[in-house]
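Self-study notes.
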Amino acid sequence: MHNWICAGVGFALAGAAQAGSFGPYAGAGYGEFRYERTYEVPGEILRLEEKEDAWKVYAGFRFLPFLGAEGAYADLGEVEARGTAGEVRARARSMLASLIAFAPVGRMEVFAKVGAAAWEVDTQLAGADGSAIQQAREGTNATYGGGVHMAVMEDLFVRAEWERVDFDNADGEFWTAGLMYTF
């Protein structure tokens, strides 16, 4: 029984080593960010629930065929909501640090990640009566996600992923597609 387990682990590691290499990688992605939060302006409650174009750049290092670490900067765009009593605009940015696990599936590799996101959201609230409030909020919260990548050339991959960033009192989801290069 012990030999079968060792053989299975060996084959899994060999398959993972073929699918991805050790060492550094970097990439960029473009996609969509969805932000949800409720704001109060005098006389009305505005619910931001919008999607916006967003992008990110990232770099990572693969320590083992199935495990690595990744850092990223994401510009999550600007969303806005309008009502009869005013409007609200929010612009979000984030720095992310994650552990990432890889698993080969045929010609592709799936991955899952978990980590922390240091975020900043700049908000402008404007009432119909001319009142205005600006807020800058920042914090650090958990982030998690997953995706898939596939080689198109020896060191060049296409990558699609989903990530969730939990802001204080708000939720954000980030979908991207892009290119990754391994060194």
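Second protein, same conventions, sequence then structure:
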Amino acid sequence: MHPNERLLREEYRARAHRDDRALADVFADDIVWHVPGKSAIAGDYRGRDQVMEYVRRRRALADDTFEVTVEDVLANDQHGFVIATGSAIRHGKRRTWRAHGLYRLERGSIAECWDSQRINRPSTTSGADPLIEPLDRRFRWEATSIRWPSDMKCQRPG
């Protein structure tokens, strides 16, 4: 297993066990976390303290029922991509969705994440974040795209 795959799996393990100390340890001091959209948790979070506050706020909004199951992790020396399924209970109803995270990795730490948690949400009719949707219905979901790092090179095989 590539060391950065191990790093990303550790991030999700720490989240699942609500181990904030272990979670903070995988983040670079100057980490940047991007959450697209217009929900109560959308925005750019800079630095370990702000990112950890985002994690705690998201957990609190889900009444501590937020769960993530990792389905696949792809990683190399500079980048990682995680495909996962998330769920939470809001107002007595379990909501599930697909989540994807694109990561920039540096020196054994997560330096940046582009969260695309609004992709493919079959359990909601409006397409809004299923966790935040009951909190703020005045915004309708707008398709957002991941802003890929400018230095990421993609090539087709063959």
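Instructor comment on the second fold: The chain is about 20% helix and 35% strand.
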